[in-house]
Amino acid sequence: MKITKAQSQENRARIVETASTLFRERGFDGVSVADLMVAAGLTHGGFYKHFGSKADLMTEATAQGLVAKMSEYQDLDTAEFIARYLSREHRDERGDGCTMAALSGDAARQPPAVQAAFASGIASMLAAVERGAMAAGADQGAARAKAISLFSQMLGALVLSRACPDDSPLSDEILDVCRRQILTALVPVGGIPRSRKR
């Protein structure tokens, strides 16, 4: 039975969404096309009707995951964003968490298109953190440097925290220490900046 164009688009979207979650949970190499299609509730043969290769899907799923996470953080002020990013909940929700924290190590070994999707997501995240630094009183040059440093610390803290067993006191300590230090670094004389919007 021939499927409609609308059903084909729905199937493609389901594949991308499923892949985005599974890649964050297991890594790019930890998910086969067959496993992915089973998880999406579709047949293995249907994959190549939508994508030329697994790398094509990896690029699209990466971009979707990055955009989804940015949208989730869009309306948070600086302090809320940092608190949510460096939370135990975010640490534990690998499949729905930050694509950069889950897959940056894998991205370094992937085709240029996947790396380009990561570079775009990193640039967007840095721009958002930079706006928070400027709201805290830093000039533009200093804000950019501070954004790179602070986001690198945030990303590294989440990665290190996830590398520890979930019930490890060290895992929680890494998040707590980095969250406090980053918030302190962004606090202007008048208090936490509230103007950060994406």
Report on the structure:
One of its GO terms (molecular function) is DNA binding. This is TetR family transcriptional regulator. By secondary structure, the chain is an all-alpha fold. It has a single domain, classed as Tetracycline Repressor, domain 2 (Orthogonal Bundle), CATH 1.10.357.10. It is built from 10 helices and no strands. Helix 5 packs antiparallel against helix 10 and helix 8 crosses helix 9 (140-163). The longest helix has 24 residues, at 112-135.
Helices and strands, with pairings:
Elements: H1 5-26, H2 33-39, H3 47-50, H4 54-73, H5 78-85, H6 88-92, H7 99-107, H8 112-135, H9 140-163, H10 169-186
Low-confidence stretches: 189-198
Q: List the total number of helices.
A: 10
Architecture per CATH nomenclature, i.e. the level-2 architecture: Orthogonal Bundle
The tally of domains stands at 1
CATH level 3 topology: Tetracycline Repressor, domain 2
What portion of the residues fall into strands of 2 or more residues? under 5%
Q: What is the CATH C level class, in words?
A: Mainly Alpha
Strand/helix succession? HHHHHHHHHH
Assembly state: single chain
Helix content: over 70%
Q: On the 0-100 scale, what is the average pLDDT? A: 87
Beta strands, count: 0
Radius of gyration: 19 Å
* Class by alpha and beta content: mainly alpha
Keywords: DNA-binding, Repressor, Transcription, Transcription regulation
Protein name: TetR family transcriptional regulator
GO molecular function: DNA binding
Pfam families: TetR_C_13_2, TetR_N
Summarize the structure.
Helices cover 71% and strands 0% of the residues. It has helices at 5-26, 33-39, 47-50, 54-73, 78-85, 88-92, 99-107, 112-135, 140-163, 169-186.
